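Continuing the series of single-chain predictions for the mutant panel. This is the parent chain; the variants come on the following pages.
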Amino acid sequence: MQFLHISSSRERTMTMLHWTSIRSWIRGACTFTLKGCKIPCCFYGLVLTCTIMVGLFALSRELMTSKSETKKIVLIARALNYSSRSHPRDNVLENPKIILLYAKTRYQPVMDELSTLRGCPEVNCRMTTNQSYLQRSSAVMFAALFLKLKTPPQRYKDQVWILHNHESPRTSWVGKRSIWLQSWKNVFNWTIDYRNDSDIPAPYGVLQARNHTIDKDYSAIFKRKKGTIAWMVSNCKTESKRMDYVKELKKYVQVDVYGACGNHKCPRSDGPACFEMLSAKYKFYLSFENAFCKDYVTEKFFLYYGLNFILITRGGADYTKHAENNTYINAMDFKSAEQLAVFIKQLANNETKYTAYLKRKDKYKPVYEEYIRKKDDVIVWRSHRLEAQAMCEACKRLWDVDKYRKQYDDITAWFDKGICYATPIM
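Parent structure:
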């Protein structure tokens, strides 16, 4: 490394200066001794002077070596930091596989420089949203919801093109984005999606068994709760017609609706505090999806699973693949909203059965990632996903790309054919 070479030259120069100084000092000492002393005195004076000089020289060498080693350590640390920061120039220590987010999601940050992967910063891959890296990128990723180009960009040799999706293919945007154009149908090699059958699944979250039990006063938690059901929602018109279902449910049981679709308010920017309040006050919380689609279980389930209430789900996924029975309530297990209300009221009035749900639920912890957006250092928006592991898997595949070669002849045939379901009758 150039810096280390300069350091070695400087060390040799300083060594020569030290020897020059020492020789001058010895000559001066001996001259003084010969003029002022008898020969034995001069001899012992010379020996003493030389001994001192040798000791000082050894000490100076040790100090110089120590400084040199310190410089080496600082240099290596800077190189590692530079590599992690990854300036747009070539990396100092490596030649990474670059993953370009050509059309990114709303929650993914802007990355003008090369950035390490969130879930595995040590791997030899980097991410960026800077399209000037297109030619050098090993993978180019396009978020389906935000892809609005009539024709694909230029494609370079051996690139892997990935369709990234985190939303249900609802009719509100189906057919209105690039992937439904003929020019885009056969360009993709891999998919990253919340669906289990995607090439690289990226669910909104997962539940993991805890290594230890949680110590809570479940009886006190139950007795503090004065409300029955809470729901925070801002999208009032959805294909799942969840507002209609809640309107019917409210005929039989208390449901307090927070946000843009209800009469109760709690600032979205203050999300954690809001849900701590809801968790303390209410016994149940609605986790209703905006569409009935295969494997579509969003952050509404994973984000609130760990709080001190019981989730009531409603969606098109098989929730038994995600959570243990009797840790949540699935509205789809009941023939009507009225039957669901009857069950909720029975459970709400039985401390033993209600707290049994909480105890079983607390055997698991939800795992997800939080992405935030700030304005003037104030959080105005939060999003929760679990895609760090998926990006690590993409990196692993890029280093063994021949093993995973694939191409979709018609991406729309995979993306939206038979994936979503008609809204069930209440």
